[in-house]
Design brief:
Strand order of the largest sheet: 2-1-6-7
Mean pLDDT: 92
CATH topology of one domain: hypothetical protein PF0899 fold
Distance between the termini: 27 Å
Structural class: alpha+beta
Oligomer: single chain
């Protein structure tokens, strides 16, 4: 289960950000997750809880924002949802496209610290 190593990496990155902010208290870690990332959401949530035990993030929560698969459709000339993860065709007109614009995300984008939201920058 590679989700445990991903959870450990998330915790390590968050702890580095907390050190930069001179705080060690985080309530919620916000993550964007696309279906093309290869990560199983439920397994990551379970792994995150396990990985947090004994760390400075113990008691924190992982909130996951699901990102849909979006492709660029040359016929519609805009980003459109794909029919499915396996069928990269425009949901509006059916045109196939290999130009995937969204759906592979696996990124921490915000932390909730002491009842405030701090957007994490790259």
């Amino acid at each position: 289960m590679h989700e445990l190593s991903i959870a450990l990496s998330i915790i390590e990155g968050v702890e580095q950000e907390l050190a930069r902010r001179s705080t060690d208290s985080v309530a919620v870690v916000h993550l964007r997750l696309g279906p093309l990332s290869g990560v199983v959401k439920e397994a990551l949530l379970f792994s995150y809880e396990l990985a947090c035990e004994g760390s400075s993030l113990a008691g924190s929560r992982l909130e996951i924002e699901d990102i849909p698969v979006l492709i660029y459709c040359p016929l519609c000339d805009k980003e459109q949802p794909a029919l499915s993860m396996q069928n990269l065709r425009c949901s509006a007109c059916g045109t196939p496209s290999g130009d995937v614009r969204k759906g592979s995300e696996l990124e921490v984008f915000a932390l909730e610290l002491n009842n405030e939201c701090a957007t994490q920058t790259g």
